[in-house]
What does this fold into?
Amino acid sequence: MSDPIADSSTAPSDQIRADRACAGCGFNLYGQSVIREEHYGLAIARCPECGTVAALQQYPVMTHWVNRFRLIIGGVYIVLLLGMLALSTFAISGFGIAAAEFASEPLADHLALQHTIWEQQVGSQPPGDAQVPAPINQPLPQYSRWNILTPKWIDEELDEAMQQFGGIYGNMNAEVYILLVPSAFVSLVLGIFWSVALLGSNRSRVLVVPAAIAIIAGVILVGANFDSGTYPSARALAENIYVMRLIPLLLVYEFIFMGIGVLIGRPIARFVVKFALPPRSRVPFGVLWSRDGLSMPSTNSARASRSAT
Amino acid sequence: MPISHTCPSCCAELGHLRAVPDPHYGLGVIVCPCCTHAVVRVRHPDRVFWQQMRRLRKGLFQLWLANMFTALATGATIGMAFWLLPQLTSRAGRYKQPDIADPSVPAQIIVAVIMLLLCGIIARVVYAHLRFRSVLVLFVVLIGVFCFIDAIIGRLVLFALALGNAVEDIGMPTALELKRRAMMLPLVMPVFVLGMIAGGQLNRLIERGSGKRIVRIRRRLRNRQARLD
It folds into this structure.
């Protein structure tokens, strides 16, 4: 049985002298004769293994897998970014919780002490008698900031105890200020990360992410500590008081540092890439420059030749 | 071997020819040597995608490697400096007592000097694309900052505590300790710089070797093209 294509072909004009895989079986068509088929005048070659005809002038086959891989990679990237958003919120919230805990220690001790004194007074007071003032120059009773405060004491004595304590900000544990150093550093690093990770947006839009992180952290912390319960411990009550006053300030402080990180993140990334990589290896990172409308840094020799011309 | 690309006019194999970007559209154009027909070389999208991914992966790996080697060279230099100074000061103390003087150079000091030279070589080879001065400034800054990092953080903490009118002993390095560290830098940096100079020479040798290899490959391609023609 004769092959119509082979029969209709003209004499071989050339050979394939480079790699070309057969579309049917993947066999390398290197060395096969190129013939011009009669009907359309197309250049073709025939696979010696499976006999499939390969058209040699063609647009490359477009598979769907490139787009699928792009979709998969994009999806994975978005999932990673969402995970990073959660991690950023946890980190920022963690500093808020630590700050409230540190700062509230003196107030918690004070409330526990006042409550213990009040309990002793109430316990020693005969029923129906008028209130006896607390004896002076008596050793301080044993107390703990984990003591449970009674609703009656909260209703009757809490305001007076707070007045005795003095200023909320002035009397807080000074060690809370140490947290300003690591929280600023972590916020700065997070800002730099978001600035580089969200290259699709300009920097003013990236600032939305730190703002969202600060708002989510604020809502979680204030919402979780909104009500300390009917029988709170002295520590929980003191922490609750500080959460409302301290955490908004700390979140604003962290947002400022995240904002600075967003502003300096891309220049830092460009500096690191420019410093660490030779010009040829910088090409995949060109988006760091092109995103901000900058041109890729050229080598000294290229700059010299350009200035010479 | 390149991917096959045939001339649509005369079916000649054009795979070995380099596509020159045309000045108007930037397309890779090849002029067939047999029939002078101009052909545009279109790259397969699959191939372009994976090539980009491969380049990105390679670039990220190189970036990671450069950072790792920078951290290694900085850390090892600081480590050697911290270790070397007590060794030298103790030896200097012993020299004052002639009874227990040991004039032989101890092996530890030789090892430390070799390590410092090695750090300098690594620094120069990793940053071969930069000028000598830039690499030197980078490492002086890095080593300087990380030598005094505890003092810097301590100062920041004290500043933060001062905001709350609190004074605490946070275990800051003493002035004498800082002075000793400052003395270490001029002690180790000359050896490090010597290592950098050696690294520069080594890099020149590597570049010369790769240059020769490129010339060899080009000659082979030229010969093959001549045989095909």
Q: What stands out?
A: Chain A is about 60% helix and 5% strand. Residues 91-122+143-276 of chain A form one domain. Strands of chain A lie at 14-15, 33-36, 43-46, 53-55.
